[in-house]
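Data deposition worksheet. Section B asks for the primary sequence of the deposited chain exactly as it was used as input, without tags or linkers unless they were present during the calculation. Section C holds the resulting structure in C-alpha cell form. Section D is free text for depositor observations; keep each observation to a single sentence. Incomplete worksheets are returned to the depositor.
Section A, Depositor: J.P.
Section B:
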Amino acid sequence: MHVAEPQPQTDTRTAGAPPPSAGGALARLVRPRQWIKNAFVLAPTVFAGLYLDPPSVLRAVVAVALFCVAASAVYVFNDLADLETDRLHPVKRLTRPLASGAVSAATARAVLGVLVALLCAGLVALPAVALPIAAYIALNAAYTLRLKHVAVVDLFCIASGFVLRVYAGAEAVGVPLSSWMLITTLSLALYLAAVKRRQELATSGAEARRVLGAYTVGLLDGYAQTAASASIVFYSLYVIDVRPELAVTVPLVLLGIFRYSYLVQSRNLGESPTEALWNDLPLILTIVAWCVVAVYQLWPGAA
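Section C:
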C-alpha cells in the first residue's frame, strides 16, 4: 500500500543536493504527497450529490483529514518496522528519512504518538468513520509485518485500502455504499497495485522486495489488464444502473486508464501512482475534467 521509491542506482533527487532541513525530513517521513489518495473518501459525497449540503461536506472533509493522519501514522510505523532493511537498500537508505539518519527513531516514535493522539481526538468528533479507519490501520499493520510478503494477497491489501477510504466516505455522510462503486474501486485499485508491482519487478528485479520473486512481468501484466477491464466494465454498469447522467464521464475514465498505461509502458512510471499523477499534466487534467463533469451532471436540477 505504500509506494516504493524509484529504483535507479543513482538517486538523482538526492545526488548533489544539500542535506534536507529537519522540517523537510519530517515532511518526507509523513509523506503529504501521498495524501492525494484520500480523495477517494470524497467519492460518495460526489456520487450522492451532497456537495451542496454544508454539513455533509464538512463531515466528508473531516473524514479526509482523519485518513490523512491515519495514513501518515501508517507510513511512520512502516518506516520504523523496515528501518534495518531500508538501511541496506541502495536507494531507500538515501531517500527514507529514518534510514538516512535525517530523522532519529526516537523522533519518529514521538511523531507517531502525536499522530495517533490527533487521530483519536478526531474520531471523537466523527465516530462514524472509526470502524473503517481502524480496519485500515489494522490491515496496514498486518501488511507491514507479514502480508506484503504473500503473493497476490499483497495486491488485495493495497487495493483494500482504497475500498476502505470509499467506505469511510459513505459512513461520514450517511449514505449506503453502492455495490457497483465498491467493486469498481476494488478493480481500479487492483490495477494500480498490479502495475506498481510490475514496475518494481521490471526496474529493480526480484531482490528489491521479497514478494517479487513470486511474480513475473507477464503475470502482473495479465493481472493489470484484467483489473483495468473490470474497472471500466463495472464503472459503466454503475453508470447505467445507478447514475445514467454520468454516461458522459465514461470516455474520461477510459482516457485516464489509457494515459496511465502509456506512462507505465512508454515512460517507465507506475511504481509510484502518486508520483506518476503529480508529474503528468494530461493525467491531472483528465482527473480534473472528470470531477468537473461529474459535479455538473449531478448538480441538483441539472438533469
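Section D:
Residues 54-81 form the longest helix (28 residues).
Residues 5 and 92 are 7 Å apart (CA to CA).
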